[in-house]
């Protein structure tokens, strides 16, 4: 078993150091270009002004890493002129320390309605159509609608997704770093495995290893042994590793806000020929999905390519088990799951700069599951891997 077992957590953590060549952060010039692109898309959608709430999209346009809460923090982007930011007055210092672009700031006190500030800004801009960030809470949307009844509200998904789906070279570099860090953690995780180790011990190691490489730790972590691998997101229990178990580890981290999300499935001892056969089919399905990527083809074509491999092997069809119970992949960037999606029904044309997971998991109900997950970005001629796929069930590469 190449690279599986034979070491300790202390030894592997001791060999890790902060990432030697971190990718550069996103610049103000790139954020200005994103805003210019958003305005072009706003014009095409017939929007006078765009509202973007706290979360990944606000970080994308304004560089502000701010989680959504019941207090409205948002950017109003008019079709022309400076952005306008809505911020609680007591948060101004934190806001100013985190913002990455220039703009006017409108403050509201705790006993005031921030939606009234939005309505005032809409009137000042003579706006009649407001494009709403699809991630903005209904609570805020409903209050804006009440305070600005003269304004038509439309979905801003074509604007926001139209910008965020296509990654720049700087974004690709940050995504590449995050994924390389997590792949290194995967390799070292496999080395610490020993019979009797608990999944919770492995999860703690993975978080510590991500931190040792310079990230803020794991953004999520799933460690599953044996029968638990048959459940795509595991079971509410702390698995104990036994000889002959299949191991599934799914985890990720951040590089300046950009996500990794990589899964490895491998044997701890002799797992049996039936499991090895399914692992091989999974490997082939992942390769088929990758090979199906062509600019201009619909996203759903990639999902269909993976499912054809499974169906030829007698699995499925569709979402039937044994087989693939979920989509083949998802977009990834500042959100771990974001449009577009590699699934039947998503006809979004593939385009250079799009980034996706490739994870056509095979589940054999109540027995085991195999998920191999790597990520690729679309190129002018096809696809390019961020991380090399796992070469064998006994070898993480």
TrEMBL record:
The UniProt record lists the keyword Hydrolase: yes
Q: Which UniProt keywords apply?
A: Hydrolase, Metal-binding, Metalloprotease, Protease
- Creatinase N-terminal domain residues: 34-166
Q: Name one GO biological process term.
A: proteolysis
InterPro entries according to UniProt:
Creatin/AminoP/Spt16_N, Creatinase/aminopeptidase-like, Creatinase_N, Pept_M24, Peptidase_M24B, Peptidase_M24B_aminopep-P_CS
GO MF, one example = metal ion binding
Hydrolase recorded as keyword: yes
Q: Which Gene3D superfamilies match?
A: Creatinase/methionine aminopeptidase superfamily, Creatinase/prolidase N-terminal domain
Q: Which residues form the Peptidase M24 domain?
A: 174-380
**Matching SUPFAM superfamilies, A to Z?**
Creatinase/aminopeptidase, Creatinase/prolidase N-terminal domain
Family to which this protein belongs = Belongs to the peptidase M24B family.
From the Swiss-Prot or TrEMBL record, give the protein name.
M24 family metallopeptidase
């Amino acid at each position: 078993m190449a690279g599986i077992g034979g070491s300790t957590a202390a030894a592997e953590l001791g060999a890790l150091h902060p990432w030697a060549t971190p990718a550069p952060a996103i610049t103000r010039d790139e954020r200005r270009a994103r805003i210019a692109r958003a305005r072009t898309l706003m014009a095409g959608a017939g929007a006078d002004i765009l509202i973007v709430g706290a979360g990944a999209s606000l970080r994308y346009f304004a560089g502000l890493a701010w989680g959504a809460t019941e207090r409205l923090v948002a950017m109003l982007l008019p079709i022309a002129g400076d952005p306008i930011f809505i911020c609680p007055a007591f948060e101004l210092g934190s806001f100013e320390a985190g913002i990455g672009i220039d703009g006017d700031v409108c403050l509201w006190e705790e006993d005031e309605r921030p939606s009234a500030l939005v309505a005032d800004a809409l009137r000042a801009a003579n706006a009649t159509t407001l494009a709403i960030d699809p991630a903005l809470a209904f609570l805020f949307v409903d209050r804006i609608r009440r305070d600005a009844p003269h304004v038509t509200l439309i979905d801003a998904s074509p604007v926001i997704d139209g910008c965020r789906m296509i990654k720049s070279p700087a974004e690709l570099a940050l995504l590449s770093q995050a994924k390389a860090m997590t792949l290194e953690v995967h390799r070292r995780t496999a080395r610490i495995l020993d019979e009797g180790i608990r999944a919770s011990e492995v999860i703690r190691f993975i978080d510590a290893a991500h931190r040792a490489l310079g990230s803020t730790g794991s953004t999520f972590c799933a460690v599953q042994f044996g029968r638990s691998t048959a459940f795509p997101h595991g079971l509410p229990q702390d698995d104990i590793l036994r000889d002959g178990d299949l191991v599934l580890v799914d985890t990720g981290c951040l590089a300046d806000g950009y996500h990794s999300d990589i899964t490895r499935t491998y044997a701890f001892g002799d797992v049996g020929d039936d499991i090895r056969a399914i692992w091989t089919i999974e490997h082939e399905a992942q390769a088929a999905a990758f090979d199906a990527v062509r600019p201009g083809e619909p996203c759903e074509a990639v999902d269909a390519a993976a499912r054809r491999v499974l169906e030829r092997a007698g699995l499925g069809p569709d979402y039937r088990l044994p087989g693939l119970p979920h989509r083949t992949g998802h977009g990834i960037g500042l959100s771990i799951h974001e449009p577009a999606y590699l699934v039947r029904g998503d006809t979004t044309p593939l385009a250079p700069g799009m980034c996706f997971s490739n994870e056509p998991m095979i589940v054999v109900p109540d027995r085991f599951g195999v998920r191999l997950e790597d990520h690729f970005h679309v190129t002018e001629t096809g696809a390019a891997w961020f991380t090399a796929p796992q070469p064998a069930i006994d070898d993480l590469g």
